[in-house]
Write a structure and sequence with these properties.
alpha/beta, about 550 residues, Rossmann fold, globular, seven-stranded parallel sheet, binds adenosine monophosphate
């Protein structure tokens, strides 16, 4: 065991859980974990104010796993999550942490998949049930006793659940659980509706909130880029092409990520190395020395490993993985902008982490501007600029040293000096792509590939760019998490506007405004995004709804 896992070891978790955490590569508990784990382990009810990206899943998963009895083959813990995606993510996290606990099984229960196998998995003795409220209620209707053995309940992203209209379902679920159970509620915000739930259903809860104090950040230009988690490496590679950096530090969350990213960078020819808690002290010092004197340009580090690292050459910090809290963000980006120099900090944000970005902006009192991935033209310009910079100092005297050789080679090969210079360029650039077409071909990412369609919390863009229709035909707008797209044959030619559809669905469907996503009205049809969970019930409710005098007849819409 490495010394830095001491942080997790101090909790006295079941050794099998600790072993799994170590295997996952976490070096130390995040702030929310530090505070929540002992409370939940001790059996208290708790309200945790934390958003995605703080490590909140492990903050409840580890102590809950510690408290269950693997020998008992019945549901013992229930985790409620607002969307199918989150439910799956949480279930996977539980499976990871329970990897070394023989006999512990996890079942994910959500809409859009057959009910039979889910119920069977519960009855077969899964100790952990991770569910969306709508589907769980469907199960309760079939078997009201199915949750009677649950003694730990976690409400994850409680505010999101309420926004999606799950209040009634939650009440049904509370009733189906033993009143003596432990209840833990996590929510990014604590509006009155959440506090009311806590008042009614939690017993003497302890509050955990990550304290944030305002921090000042000067001389550092900050920007963020929206990107899906699996596109981070390509995004980093694209950014490096256009960023004019001297030395750079990249922050990731796990040891494995330091190794993976450092080798991806090395493969592209960067002088990069990993720095993590497993690296011996003398090796660590060598890496830092190399970064100082230019033998290395990029270090990929975890927070723990980067502690005390002070290298004035660092012009850039890339936060490839989100820091756990704003303090750590400020700490990380403080690695640049040293000695009165200007620094630049880039933060990669996945769709689920946008809230964390807002918290960072609030705490630092600064806007972290959005940037897009460079397009092929920008990459080409940057590559040519680099080439120009590397060749121009040579031009002054290369002719005197190599001019005669050039003459001879053109004769020997029988080519023009232009053909020979071109051949030399190809060799010197390692056949790097140096035309627009070639760059477009080699790049897995296009700049507009960033997950814009996921931005359900942004005001919808109605800007009518001339290419909009064409763009949508080629690339359908991605659905936000937990949403299904539905279609009606009513469109603009029937005198329908988005607000008519919205009004009808709100009134007759009994949904909250936030539960309804994007509405697109076309000439002969319209598309509406609705919550996946409970969709069948909603469509049945809307069966006889009329809009502008015509039957709505809303159906699930499948693009394929
Ligand atoms: P969450 O806020 O629960 O969505 O977690 C965000 C990410 O942080 C997940 O990818 C976790 O695997 C990771 N994570 C959680 N706790 C730690 C930790 N102590 N050290 C490193 N990574 C962590």
């Amino acid at each position: 065991m490495t010394q830095e896992t001491g942080g997790f070891a101090a909790f006295n978790l079941n050794p099998n859980i600790l072993a799994a955490v170590i295997a996952t590569g976490y070096e130390e508990p995040s702030a929310i974990q530090q505070q929540s784990i002992p409370i939940i382990m001790a059996g208290h009810d708790m309200i945790g104010q934390a958003q995605t990206g703080t490590g909140k899943t492990a903050a409840f998963a580890l102590p809950i796993l510690h408290r269950i009895d693997p020998a008992k083959r019945e549901p013992q813990a229930l985790i409620l999550a607002p969307t199918r995606e989150l439910a799956l993510q949480v279930a996977t996290a539980f499976e990871t942490y329970a990897k070394q606990m023989p006999g512990v099984t996890v079942v994910a229960v959500y809409g859009g998949a057959p009910m039979g196998p889910q119920l069977k998995a519960i009855r077969n003795g899964a100790q952990i049930v991770v569910a969306t409220p709508g589907r769980l209620c469907d199960h309760l209707r079939r078997d009201e006793k199915v949750l009677s053995t649950v003694n730990h309940l976690v409400l994850d992203e409680a505010d999101e659940m309420l926004k999606l209209g799950f209040m009634d379902d939650l009440e049904v679920i509370f009733k189906a659980l033993p009143p003596t159970r432990q209840t833990v509620l996590f929510s990014a915000t604590l509006p009155q509706s959440i506090r009311a739930i806590a008042e009614r259903h939690l017993r003497d809860p302890q509050h955990v909130k990550i304290q944030t104090k305002t921090q000042t950040v000067t001389a550092i230009e900050q920007a963020h880029l929206l990107v899906h988690a699996d596109q981070k490496t390509s995004a980093v590679l694209s950014l490096l092409e256009v960023e004019d950096f001297d030395a750079l530090i990249m922050f990731v969350r796990t040891k494995q990520a330091t190794l993976d990213l450092a080798s991806a960078l090395e493969a592209k020819g960067y002088k990069a190395a990993a720095l993590n808690g497993d690296i011996a002290q003398n090796q660590r010092e060598r890496v830092i020395e190399s970064l100082k004197d230019g033998r290395l340009d990029i270090v990929v580090a975890t927070d723990v490993a980067a502690r005390g690292l002070d290298v004035p050459r660092i012009t850039h910090v890339f936060n490839v993985d989100m820091p756990y809290d704003p303090e750590s963000y400020v700490h990380r980006i403080g690695r640049t902008g040293r000695a009165g120099r200007e620094g630049r900090a880039l933060l990669l944000v996945t769709p689920r982490e946008r809230r964390m970005l807002q918290v960072i902006e609030r705490v630092t009192g600064q806007k972290v501007a959005e940037v897009r991935l460079p397009d092929a033209q920008a990459v080409l310009d940057a590559r040519i600029k680099k080439l120009t910079n590397s060749l121009s100092p040579l031009v002054a005297d290369a002719e005197s040293t190599h001019g005669d050789l050039l003459d001879r080679l053109t004769v020997d090969i029988g080519c023009t000096p232009r053909a020979l210079a071109a051949a030399l360029l190809r060799k010197a650039t390692n056949a790097q792509a140096l035309t627009l077409a070639a760059i477009e071909k080699e790049r897995p990412l296009v700049p507009n590939n960033a997950p814009r369609g996921d931005r359900s919390d942004r005001p919808e863009r109605t800007g009518d760019r001339p290419d909009r229709g064409d763009r949508e035909r080629r690339a359908p707008v991605p659905l936000a998490e937990g949403r299904a797209r539905c279609r009606t044959a009513l469109g603009a030619r029937d005198g329908i506007a988005a607000k008519n559809l919205l009004g009808a669905i709100l009134n007759e469907g009994g949904l909250a405004r936030e539960a309804i996503g994007r509405i697109q009205v076309r000439d002969s049809f319209s598309l509406v995004e609705l919550p996946e969970d409970g969709l069948e019930r909603l469509l049945t409710k809307l069966k006889d709804t009329r809009v502008a005098g015509k039957q709505l007849k809303l159906r699930r819409y499948r693009e394929d």
